[in-house]
Design a protein that fits this description.
This protein starts with a helix and ends in a 21-residue tail after the last strand. It has one helix spanning about 5-25, and strands at about 25-35, 50-55. The protein is α+β, with helices and mostly antiparallel strands. The chain has a two-stranded antiparallel sheet with strand order 1-2. About 0% of the residues are buried. It has one domain (about 5-60): HIT-like (HIT family, subunit A, 2-Layer Sandwich), CATH 3.30.428.10. It is built from 1 helix and 2 strands.
């Protein structure tokens, strides 16, 4: 991504975060994830960002971040 694209993505993430928090007060945190490069697990070579709303106790152990959000999907 270019510097401008990263800046635009940040603006979009902040707007989406604000909208989600306004629409759903049960959201208490977010994970933001990107895989950049094959070594990092990227399988489709284009830029995309995951904004994942989180809720208190939505998983028994939130450690592990984005890959641990849906434990059954960690090895796909």
């Amino acid at each position: 991504m270019t510097d401008k694209e990263r800046a635009d993505a940040t603006v979009l993430l902040k707007a989406l975060k604000a909208t989600l928090e306004e629409e759903d007060p049960t959201i208490s945190g977010f994970n933001i994830g990107m895989n950049s490069g094959k070594t990092a697990g990227q399988t489709v070579m284009h830029s995309h960002i995951h904004l994942i709303p989180r809720r208190k106790e939505d998983t028994p152990n939130p450690r592990g971040g984005v890959r641990g959000v849906i434990p059954d999907n960690m090895d796909y």
